[in-house]
């Protein structure tokens, strides 16, 4: 099966969570928009193609299936790429964690866009500062602490395996947060030792390591979800 | 199977999407917190119970499984309660729509809490007005228009059936938006005829009709996700 991934060119964005799974598994896939331009997605978004109607990218075409929503794409790919432990309990737990990552990513996005999605960050900077401060005070420690607890827990037959799409997404989350909020993340260091170990392990996986060094890995930038605006980060 | 639903007392919130599915199907369930108080949830959230660790309510206990995240709970219950069409394509499409509803609900929440989750609405009213204006201008028409298109499309074997957990959630979404933004929703009326028809059909289902008239259906209020603050709505 040759998968077709549809996501904006120029940013990692939500598509990157899917891309990491495809890359890690060495799956056969085409990054459609990067090969043909962002317009390649439009006919799907405008309802001109068969199959499910996506609300937004990323979406995956797998044979005749069209699947949107990042967490759902990973739920679909997980068993097919060997990226989720076997057993329905483990699959459900993995998907629960992934949907929680989705929530977290939306909150990261809103740090720089707290008021109006269609306006620039620069047009909502005071609000962004306020929202980011609350995010760094309350939400960042809560979410990272939760994932630390999940890793620490490793509970019996429902535990995640040593490798899953969730691990890949947690790696991406930590990488993005390190880029966006380096000072805040330095301060979190001692409280996230398990996540740090996980991220280091993922970065060393051969396919991921090769991918990260390839031109396919676009650098984080200020058009994406994880943006580095020094004025929003903690003081050094 | 007697399901145990864990969700805050006193509000409909995200738990209501699960409750509607259980009620519509006439499932055997206990609304645990309502019977034993909010504290009944704490031991799960604090990791004192076996199974998956929830990040937040709602979560469902089904035998030994603990399942959090609203959309995922519905993905689990759907086939068991006859609330999703058969076939993997239809199940995936239903879940895609449900995860999109999750995103929409988060945006509805942020209209009254754009900056700091842990502070009161009254402490962030100017920002709430700005965010709500953008929400009513851009996001509400985009999301409702999307679901109108999905219903209109009814595409072949991937179409949703005449009834699913997605329909129940769309009913809840329309009900909540009618409560929160009555003027804005009146203006949307002609652009959402299919959603209106769907919501009317759901309200007439015997189990739903009985539920809505029962004391189990808590009224919408200003502690929940859908809040009515007249100053945030459109002018009449």
UniProtKB/TrEMBL annotation, chains A, B:
InterPro entries to which the protein is assigned, alphabetical: Glutathione-S-Trfase_C-like (IPR010987), Glutathione-S-Trfase_C_sf (IPR036282), GST_C (IPR004046), GST_superfamily (IPR050213), Thioredoxin-like_sf (IPR036249)
GST C-terminal domain segment(s): 91-232
Protein's name according to its UniProt entry: Glutathione S-transferase
Organism: Dyella acidiphila
Lineage: Bacteria, Pseudomonadati, Pseudomonadota, Gammaproteobacteria, Lysobacterales
